Amino acid sequence: MRSHLLNETTADLYRRSVTEGVDRVAAKLATTERPHTGIAVGELAPVINSIDLDKPLEDPAAALDELEEVYLRDAVYFHHPRYLGHLNCPVVIPAVLGEAILSAVNSSLDTWDQSIGGTLIERRLIDWTAGRIGLGPRTDGVFTSGGSQSNFHALLLARDEACRIALQRAHAEGRDLTKADVLPRLRILASEASHFSVRKSAAMLGMGYEAVISVPVDMGRRMDTSALALELESCTRDGLVPMAVVATAGTTDFGSIDPLPEIARLAAEHSTWMHVDAAYGCGLLVSPTRRHLLDGIEHADSVTVDYHKSFFQPVSSSAVLVRERDTLRHATYHADYLNPRRMAEERIPNQVDKSIQTTRRFDALKLWMTLRVMGADGIGSLFDEVVDLAAAGWELLDADPRFEVVVRPTISTLVFRYVPGGDLRPDLVDEANLHARKALFASGEAVVAGTKVDGRQYLKFTLLNPQTTTSDISAVLDLLAVHAEQYLGASLAVHS
Ligand SMILES: *Cc1c(COP(=O)(O)O)cnc(C)c1O
């Protein structure tokens, strides 16, 4: 079994195995005609469940043959131009190269003595990202597993800052107060269109879902800042503590960007932490033409970026950044065996001091390789292409009587629904849209997403592939219309 260990004696097997894996994926890319095969859970599950995990195949080639059947053949391929579903991007080759290297070397970025250059590379990328945002001289941050973790981490820091400040004030005024007194009074303000991970974070932080106040959005699905101002005032009036305002720079459904400068002003006025969730919109940081859409983000106390959404990076690759590096201490623990306090005093850079993870992937290498090969403008212009495509897609939808489209896109999503002529029951229209999405998925011809707007069922394109064209969009719209019409035809026939 030692022959499977990656070491000085097995370099040849390593090269052959990995090359063979790469060859299979390359062959797949060359021959994939649809984003997936449309296989159903019920078809695939028995195949996977029948495999005896206690009987290894020994041979990597045999395992790859099997993998073809259980995964590669039916996988959902995000590189396909008709994958328009969720926020998954096609990936760039320098990042995939980085991925192959980081898992083979297998550095763990918790402590310096496990990573050396990896730590410094991650720190450079954090500084680089913070510089693009404009977070100032005292900034810091850390790579995370994704936007949900970044949001959670940022809100944890905001919670502990809010508690610290409240306790400090009480102490100065000679009042007795404990963290347990403060916690139930904390509130997070986020728009109705913000990501669910904000609510989930509040629950995990011991504050409950109710601690998040939903601020209404305007027609463009951006946070209504007059409503925010009113909510902040009523918090103060009711003796509550507005712990954080979460502004979303690129909402998951609409790509809308909350009015960052005005939110920053209100947050400052109420001494409230401003978190910007730019999980999706962060690609604009490198856009050669659209960086201004994020103006105001430089006022944030913390920012979430997901390189695996708009920097064309493989999952996972995300970061949380803060304006004031000292706030990261809320997630610091000095363990004798790993990162004793003495090391911090000696200025040994242990990233675990800043992270909520311990053992942690060197995801930063993927972004590093990408910047070193393609550069920031290269990534940004790819992102610009999908933003342009979404604008063209909106024109198509707006002119098409079969569909109604919600908002003109700021980034690269389109939320729309099939609307049949005539006076059909609204729930039937909902069902037709749901059916169209499902039937399209089952056909494997294309993948689109769905969401609800004001209680009604909508369809959604998330455009992240510069290879997708307006003809792809038109073709997918035709397919959706056919499926919806078929559903309505069948169901009207049943009802008449
Ligand atoms: C996707 C998304 C998240 C969550 O990020 P993950 O990487 O999926 O955990 C958070 N916020 C917004 C706005 C998102 O679009």
Automatic annotation (TrEMBL):
SUPFAM superfamilies assigned to the protein according to its UniProt record, in alphabetical order: PLP-dependent transferases
Cofactor section: pyridoxal 5'-phosphate
Keyword Lyase appears in the UniProt entry: yes
InterPro entries with a match to the protein in the record: Aromatic_deC (IPR010977), PyrdxlP-dep_de-COase (IPR002129), PyrdxlP-dep_Trfase (IPR015424), PyrdxlP-dep_Trfase_major (IPR015421)
Source superkingdom: Bacteria
Keyword annotations from UniProtKB, A to Z: Decarboxylase, Lyase, Pyridoxal phosphate
UniProt family annotation: Belongs to the group II decarboxylase family.
Protein name: Pyridoxal-dependent decarboxylase
